[in-house]
Write a structure and sequence with these properties.
The complex is a heterodimer. Chain A is mostly helical. Chain A has 13 helices and no strands. Helices cover 66% and strands 0% of the residues of chain A. The two termini of chain A are 41 Å apart. By secondary structure, chain B is α/β, with parallel strands linked by helices. In chain B, helix 6 links the parallel strand 8 and strand 9. Chain B has 2 domains: 230 residues, 3-Layer(aba) Sandwich (D-Maltodextrin-Binding Protein, domain 2); 90 residues, D-Maltodextrin-Binding Protein, domain 2 (3-Layer(aba) Sandwich). Chain B has 13 helices and 12 strands. In chain B, helix 3 packs across helix 9, helix 3 packs across helix 12 and helix 9 packs across helix 12. The interface between A and B is large, with 47 and 42 residues.
């Protein structure tokens, strides 16, 4: 670059030696402090306009109003150890009592296993471990041999769980009646069965509903509309109270089994509608394209339609799962002690009759349900993000 | 369409009634199964609730264990079926449970129209009053003008109004939709008195912030006899259920306890001998062995022991015997003679 290229350069300086030529670009000046840094961030996100400012202060006030009290109740004033109500009641020395965690510690085993016999509880632990292995193996995307994982999860695990939990006297595992099951065990069993059974069954029902065969369509429509038309409580109540009136004693299935079948069928009907929404969202060209390639119905569904349909319905499927997970608490209506019911049953125990015991029990339940549902929703989001990469290009 | 529905309903009802009255074979069924199926509460302080290990405990539960002990000589051979208030009677009718001991009030309509029979009354409950000790009241008759927290739309509310009117007291009732709200309002000082069934009052009192500042008044203003329930049509089974309770009452009356029942076997008292089966064979006509009562007492204890252990002074509830004292001590618990 020479000075001549600059048209505004004064002619008189032409013969003077060039004193300084900049041969590197000047580093970019930092942006003004009004657009970077924490202060600017706050200005942009929290204090943009009068409405925004008002909202910020209202929320801040709400936060300050709720959180210190919550922290005080849950941690600072909480009672961490003790053997009975004496440790959690209000006395002269302890005028304020927060959460009574001693109660949760005392009853934690009951909340987990229900009335499952003490010497057999290791079987429940093994079941939890097997289930955890299955879930991680199946859901972790870079896990080795995921085909084997699916086989393990859908074939080996149900059989092993049944043998472990119910018992098999030949193997030295005494039978444990399901009326002794309870707590987290029942909640996990109910939701696992509901989740695992409802997706394949729901897909079948959805395909049946869109099928051109009248028999399949009629059956699917009647089933879906009937099950969706009644509340889950009614299904459970029917299964557990009315059924025994009509069938002879020896045909009576186990109470928990009845509830499990009820939950699974109920969830399947909802799942069918979710999947159907996905099927309908696909443009007709996908079907026609698949058919023009010469694929038969099974191949078309398996290779072209379902992968796309399920992809768009993942948020709804997980939404249904989360709803189902929380709906399992309704089994209490037929006298099955799920996790929430064990807390209900324990909190009225006069041995722990103290002012904050009930609240503590419910906080514990809330934490449990929140963790489970949050994990489900986080996993779904990661899967969604991965699948969405195809659409981002 | 209507006809079809009616016909279906009639058929259903016929099947239900058929199943309900079919067998007089309950004892045989129970023996065959190897355990007693007992309809239990889904959790009621002192009457039926799981402990930290998940074992069922309580007054109603121990009644079931006593029946199982009389039949099998083993109080653990009982399977508890927790039932909600709604499905408890259907469970008895359908034979899902052999006996229902679940704080169920004996009323004429339940006794005559549901295909059920009530057995012995193992707890006389009734509506009572909880007040602050600072009011310095000793009797419900001093409650003139008091404001009373009560749950809406319950018989409790009606009983309350009747009692105040009958005793010419002025009533200011404050009603709430749920029981939790009601007790919260009482605790917050909205009213002077809280009323519900007495057994519930003791349990609620423990959950108040300062339990010691509250007391239950001695008056019981309604009749809530809580008893065992069995199906119509099997009188032998009903006898077993009834006489198990009477045997435990008789044991208390005669001073036979869980601890001394073995030495009592050598007693010369003819009443004790008849109770424990060392003289006479009173168990056999019911299909039991003659030492059925001995077994119940040995494994579970007499009525007084069970009462104190589950709801009385041995428990946090500390319910006084009151109407549930033996007839010899001014209560209502009275067993027909064993002879």
């Amino acid at each position: 670059m020479t000075a001549t290229e600059f048209p505004g350069t004064p002619m008189s300086r032409r013969d003077e030696p060039v004193r300084f030529v900049r041969d590197t670009t000047v580093g970019a000046a930092p942006p003004p402090s009004s657009v970077v840094g924490p202060w600017a961030w706050m200005r942009e996100h929290l204090f943009t306009g009068p409405v925004n400012i008002a909202m910020t202060f209202i929320l801040l006030a709400l936060f300050l109003w709720v959180v210190p009290g919550l922290v005080r109740f849950l941690f600072i004033d909480a009672v961490w150890s003790g053997v009975d109500r004496e440790s959690c009641i209000i006395t002269e020395q302890r005028p304020v009592v927060g959460a009574c965690w001693a109660f949760i510690r005392d009853r934690a085993a009951y909340f987990t296993y229900g009335s499952y016999p003490l010497p057999e509880r290791w079987r429940v632990d093994v079941f939890f471990a097997l289930l955890a292995i299955g879930v991680v193996w199946l859901l972790k995307l870079d896990a080795p041999r995921r085909d084997l994982g699916a086989f393990y999860f859908f074939i080996v695990l149900p059989i092993a769980s049944y043998v472990l939990l119910v018992g098999l006297p030949i193997l030295g595992l005494p039978i444990v009646e399901t009326n002794l099951w309870g707590g987290i065990l029942v909640t996990i069993v109910c939701s696992a069965v509901g989740i695992v059974v409802s997706l394949p069954l729901g897909i079948l029902l959805a395909l049946g509903r869109r099928s051109s065969m009248p028999a399949a369509r009629l059956f699917s429509v009647v089933f879906i509309e009937f099950v969706r038309g009644v509340p889950l409580i009614t299904v459970l109540f029917m299964a557990s109270v009315m059924l025994p009136l009509f069938v002879p004693d020896y045909l009576q299935p186990d109470k928990l089994l009845r509830a499990l079948v009820g939950i699974a069928l109920f969830a399947a009907a909802y799942m069918a509608e979710v999947v159907r929404a996905g099927l309908q969202a696909l443009p007709k060209g996908q079907y026609e394209g698949a058919m023009s390639l010469g694929l038969n119905y099974g191949q078309m569904m398996r290779l072209i339609i379902l992968p796309q349909a399920l992809k768009v319905t993942i948020p709804n499927i997980v939404n249904t799962y989360i709803g189902l997970f929380k709906d399992t608490t309704l089994v209490v209506i037929v006298g099955i002690f799920d996790f929430l019911k064990t807390i209900e049953a324990a909190r009225i125990d006069p041995r722990w009759g103290a002012p904050t015991v009930s609240a503590t029990g419910y906080v514990y339940a809330a934490i449990f349900y929140f963790i489970c549902c949050y994990l489900m929703s986080r996993y779904a989001r990661s899967v969604e993000a991965r699948l969405a990469q195809a659409d981002k290009r | 369409m209507k006809k079809i529905i009616l016909a279906a309903a009639a058929l259903g009802a016929a099947v239900a009634i058929g199943a309900g009255a079919a067998s007089a074979q309950t004892l045989n069924n129970v023996k065959q199964k190897g355990f007693l199926q007992c309809g239990a509460n889904t959790g009621l302080a002192g009457f039926g609730q799981p402990d930290a290990q998940g074992n069922w405990t309580g007054l109603d539960v121990d009644y079931c264990r006593a029946i199982a002990a009389a039949i099998f000589n083993d109080p653990t051979k009982v399977k508890f079926v927790p039932l909600s208030a709604k499905d408890r009677f259907t469970a008895v009718q359908s034979g899902e449970v052999d006996v229902l001991v679940r704080n169920t009030t004996w009323t004429i309509s339940r006794d005559t129209s549901l295909g059920l029979n009530f057995g012995a009354i193992n707890y006389y409950d009734g509506q009572g009053f909880l007040v602050r000790k600072s009011l310095k009241i000793a009797s419900a008759l001093e409650l003139n003008g008091a404001s009373v927290c009560v749950q809406q739309g319950t018989t409790t509310e009606l009983n309350l109004a009747d009692y105040f009117r009958a005793n010419k007291l002025e009533l200011k009732s404050v009603t709430f939709a749920t029981s939790d709200e009601t007790i919260k309002a009482y605790e917050a000082g909205r009213c002077d008195v809280f009323t519900t069934d007495a057994s519930g009052l003791y349990a609620e009192r423990l959950r108040l912030a300062k339990a010691d500042e509250h007391m239950v008044l001695p008056e019981i203003i309604s009749k809530e006899p809580l008893g065992s329930t069995v199906r119509h049509g099997d009188d032998q089974w009903r006898d077993i259920v009834q006489w198990t309770h009477y045997a435990m009452l008789t044991a208390e009356e005669l001073g036979v306890t869980k601890a001394n029942v073995d030495t009592m076997l050598k007693s010369e008292n003819p009443d004790v001998k008849r109770l424990l089966g060392t003289e006479g064979k009173f168990g056999e006509p019911m299909g039991l062995t003659s030492d059925g009562a001995y077994r119940s007492i040995k494994h579970v204890g007499n009525y007084g022991e069970v009462f104190e252990r589950t709801v009385g002074n041995g428990s946090p509830l500390k319910i006084s015997r009151g109407q549930n004292a033996l007839w010899t001590k001014g209560g209502l618990q009275y067993a027909p003679p064993i002879r």
